[in-house]
Amino acid sequence: MRRIRRKKNQRKRTIYLILLIGILLLLLVIAGRFLSPEQYGPDYNEKKLTPSIQHLFGTDYLGRDMFARTIKGLSNSILIGTLAAGFSACVALVLGILSATIGGLVDKIISYLVDLCMGIPHLVLLMLISFMMGRGLRGVIVGIALTHWPNLTRVIRGEVLQIKNMQYVKVAEKLGKSKIQIAFQHILPHVIPQFIIGLILLFPHAILHEAGVTFLGFGLSVDTPAIGIILSEALKHIATGMWWLVFFPGMMLVMVVMMFDQLGEHVRRLLDPSSARE
Amino acid sequence: MNKYVKYIVTTLLRMVLLLIGVSIVCFMLITSSPIDPVEAYVGSESNISQEQKDVIAEYWGLNNPPVQRYVTWVKNLLHGDMGISIAYQKPVTQILAQRFQTSAVLMITAWILSGIIGFLIGIVAGSHAGSVLDRVLKTFCFILSSTPAFWIGLLLLAVCSVQLGWFPVGFAVPVGKAASEVTVLDRIHHLILPALTLSITGISNIALHTRQKLIDVLHSDYVLFAKARGESAFQIIKRHGLRNIAIPALTLQFASFSELFGGSVLAEQVFSYPGLGNAATTAGLKGDVPLLLGVALFSVLFVFAGNFMANLLYGVLNPQIRKGEGQ
Fold first, then answer.
1. Ramachandran bin of A64, using left for φ above 0, alpha for ψ from -120 to 50, beta for the remaining angles
2. In angstroms, rounded to a whole number, what is the distance separating the alpha carbons of residues A98 and A180?
3. CB 3.0-4.6 Å disulfide test: which of A145, B104, B116, B246 passes with A84?
4. Among A119, A132, A239, whose Cβ lies nearest the Cβ of B162?
5. Distance from C-alpha of B234 to C-alpha of B193, rounded to nearest angstrom
6. A44 or A173: which leads in pLDDT
């Protein structure tokens, strides 16, 4: 009796954790949206301050409050991540299902495209796309959105191939249902959990890549608050010993990435029937 | 044996096919950029007239249709001519060769480091699965995988170089020293932090994978039998574990060339390390088309080499494929 109750609590805990992480991330985005430019703009009276109560993360050489800049930057990162992950995941869903259900030439072409995309180092591909778009914010967003589908496509393709060999799908085939009907009625519902988890787990990748490519100097202009920009500016002034410029923004980035990781992991636990009751 | 040869040939063929595709994609991406190569070449301050710019564009064949330009590019490429870099004013092949030497040292060191550290963490965690030690190591790996390596690089730089002064702040050799006077020790001194930074990228992946594999192996019947024979935990891992977990770990390690290259771009930026990744960043930012194409193509070859070695090794190490059994 006690064991059963304990298990029930585990499931509740998972749900609470998902809600908590979701709300935290949402708050971060909203806070970033409502920050006014003055709050993260320069203030020449308060240059190079170490972290204190007024300036939690200190200020930089232009007197800009690093806490506000970090929040704003993360909020931007999450929005870019949402756009990119959403687009990539949809592409992956469509391609994965097409590849596995139609098979033959279509499967070969899609697999070839996946290999093609994965054959170029991800960061180099991002640089190429950014270059193609003439750099700037658009280049970063397009790059991130266009390059994150291959992995998930493979996962979904594998999943669909497995479902295709299930008895009930075979029966549906024998009953004369068309491939499209089977794809929508029998396969799609089973792939949706994979899709949602994959979507959430794309965020960390997207955010880290966005930070990396902006750190290199592609994309956003120098005064936009973005974690990559903040860190590349910190690099320029690293010899002056202002460690807080490096430490706090990066720390927040790591925390956001880990929150998305945990979110994905817990949603998986909830949606996966074999571990939902653990 | 016959099957093994066939396996190699088909893998190789597939890779050549991919390489052609990738080269087309790279070429298309770069040539459709709105950044004008002539503008990038002459610089924005120069007062070269429009006619002269047109002459340059004509000379470079920029007005030809894309397919023709691609064919010309590939033809030159096959003759070993990759054009002249705008940013460095040197042949691209020369830059690639020189830069790759610098990068190769960095990447190989980091690659070996991450492989060994990751493998060891994986073995320790896997053989103590479920214990506190295992949980600590697992958490450590999860944190590592969410951490951008270039940030760790920045932290190392801020702490070890700036605060403590143990290591130089950047570059591959001491600044202001003649090339002939640079010693191996100098180079190693400059290599430690970048290599450490770059190795971070690979550790968690290999560790978590090895851990899982070892747990699977330890739950097998033959390990149960070995336990019944009275073998100690160490003997079991040495005799039955290592062989079985080495294959996936090695394959994984060779397949990580893509992340290795990407990571080196960032690590080299942090430490101003004059390698290939640094050249790629410069090329991308300055609109240096020949160099960017060159580096991109080179990185693709590099990834292919890694994947191919992974496939080869898989064949050599896995007796089922080597002897033509299985599939």
1. beta
2. 10
3. A145
4. A239
5. 34
6. A173
Within an 8 Å CB–CB cutoff, is residue B11 touching chain A?
A: no
Kindly list the residues from chain A whose CB atom is less than 8 angstroms away from the CB atom of residue B164: none
Residue A49 DSSP label: P
Is B148 in Cβ contact with A246 (below 8 Å)? no
Q: What is the pLDDT of residues B152-199, one digit of tens each?
A: 888 888 887 777 777 777 666 666 666 666 677 777 777 888 888 889
At A59, phi and psi to the nearest 5? Answer: -130, 165
Interhelix angle B92-127/B242-255, nearest 10 degrees? 150
Helices in B219-288 by DSSP H: which ranges? 221-228, 233-236, 242-255, 257-270, 276-286
All domains of chain A in start order, with CATH: 2-41+53-271 (1.10.3720.10)
Q: Which domains does chain B show, CATH number per domain?
A: 92-326 (1.10.3720.10)
Q: Which of A116, A131, A257 sits opposite B33 (nearest CB)?
A: A131
Q: Which of A116, A241, A261 shows the shortest C-beta gap to B162? A: A241
Chain A touched by B33 (CB under 8 Å): yes
Q: State the best of B146, B208, B292 to mutate against chain A, taking most chain A CBs within 10 Å.
A: B146
> ipTM of the assembly?
0.82
Return the bridge partners of A65, or none: A59
Do B320 and B244 meet the contact criterion of CB atoms below 8 Å apart? no
pLDDT for A275:
62
CB contact under 8 A, A132 and B29: yes
Which of B289, B33, B301 shows the shortest CA–CA distance to A143?
Answer: B33
At B255, which amino acid appears?
A
Placement of tokens 């003997």 in the chain: B235
Query: Which of B273, B308, B254, B293 shows the shortest CA–CA distance to B96?
Result: B293
Give φ, ψ of A58 to 5 degrees: 80, -175
Provide the pLDDT for residue B100: 87
CA distance B240 to A201: 35
Q: In this complex, do B142 and A261 lie within 8 Å of one another by their Cβ atoms?
A: yes
- Count of CA atoms in the C-beta half-sphere (13 A) of B241: 26
Closest chain A residue to the Cα of B145, Cα to Cα: A258
Q: Which residues contact B25 (CB under 8 A, 6 or more apart)?
A: A116, A120
**CA distance linking residue B121 with residue B206, whole number of Å:** 9
Q: Which of B146, B295, B302 sits opposite A254 (nearest CB)?
A: B146
Question: Cα separation of A138 and A147, whole Å?
Answer: 14
DSSP state, A239? G
